[in-house]
What does this fold into?
Amino acid sequence: MRKFIFAAAAALFASPSAAQTPAPPKLLVVISVDQFSANLFDEYRPRWTAGFARLASGTVFRNGYQSHAATETCPGHSTLLTGDHPARTGIIANNWIDQSVSRSDVSVYCAEDESVPGTSSIAYKVSPKHLLVPTLGELMKKQWPASRTVAVAGKDRAAIMMGGHTPDQRWYWTGTKYDTDLTGAPVPQSVPKVNAAVAAAIAGPLPALETTPFCQSKGREIPLEGGGKPVGGGRFARIAGDANAFRASPEFDGDTLALAAALVDELKLGRGGAPDLLAISLSATDYVGHAYGTEGEEMCLQLTELDRELGDFFETLDSRGISYSVVLTADHGGKDIPERERLAGVPNAARVNPALAPATMGKALVAKLGLTGPGLLGGWAQGDIYVDKKLKPADQARLLSTAVAAYKADPQVEAVFTAKQIAKVPLPTGNPVNWTLLQRERASFYPGRSGDFVVFLKKDITPISDTTRTAATHGSPYDYDRRVPILFWRGDASGTTVERPVETTDILPTIASIIGLPIQPGSIDGHCLPEPSGTACQR
Ligand SMILES: [Zn+2]
It folds into this structure.
């Protein structure tokens, strides 16, 4: 009898934290807000009242890091649910150059199958084949065969990188509708319904949104260098049929969330015998950032609306009585237009010298060295640049050393590293704040996909000179593009804000610990975070 009492008492008191741990959720909702920098999160945190406010009442990692150098959408999303840096996911950029492909377009899109005849990097066949590691949904299915993965996103590459290789449903916006690459999966009735509603909305005009006093205070028209129209005071008034304006507005995220909510109901997510995963990527913040920068009335209205839309979405889940938890983060941060940054006391903010574009630089160097062809291949003067392999090996070597010297000599360039230099460095670990530029690049590097050399512009140099289509961007190895919030919410109001730097690769092992999914030690780059409610990290 005494023995029994002792055993019972031991079970009650041996692990007080276990006694307080809530039951694992039945539905994991993982949300990526595209281009949602930690700077924006910090700026708006006191103003949120709905969805973001709810998430901020859980566990807030203020200093989350997309630690790698190539802070673009595809690499960033590839870290979120794999626990790995791009050096292991293989997703080094949105696009890279592969001069061995059998088609004339040597640019390869991160989420395509370039071996499909008749395709190009623009008219591509969507595929997860470049993602080299499994995602959370795949691991969950292995552990619990009944577990389902549903991915809904504004961009196909976000849905691919979060949904992985074996999703049950995957839907993303293609410019006219939400579509899928999955041919065998049944089409839920919700999809044509949402598509019809969105098409009807786009077909009509939209009046300017009502503003708020705070957003209005940001409403100042700023002229852009590089030919673009002034930005800063827009309120998303849209003419009938303008699908591009729709995409760069709060309407877009509202519709992506509406589709996600409809799929939760129709597929009964979170109500089966195994935990389900709903991965959502909301792209409008990114399109708004690119079109208008991050510090105007446009971004203010976007984030105000997104707060409300997220609040509505969570209330829908509440009303269904589903046991769910939410993780919200971003694929990368972002930066404002240099014209407005200079007004705000960033004197060195500037646009890149167009002579640094790989095509322009390549042409100049080819003429100088007496060679033929484009010389250099690559998208822009930031990140991976490739030497034309049609040149003789000796000429390739000559061009490489001349190009590295030419970029290094430019006053806007911070650093240039060759693939050989990068490959020699071990994969970085530890506090991502302290990583050197070379280490940040190493976390982005995958041989055979990465460039022959990589160029990093100086901090505060925007790699866009022609502003007729895009005003601002991200993609640099600096913290304004690397630092993102990571929010965990599980019905709690712990209100914990953690300042310690953590990484987006830590999300997967932390979620795994919450749902009891075993992860082989050392199999991923990330580490379990002990702070969120329900976490039981293995020591
Ligand atoms: Zn992005």
Notes: The first helix runs from residue 2 to 13. Confidence is low (pLDDT under 50) at residues 1-19. The two ends are 35 Å apart (CA to CA).
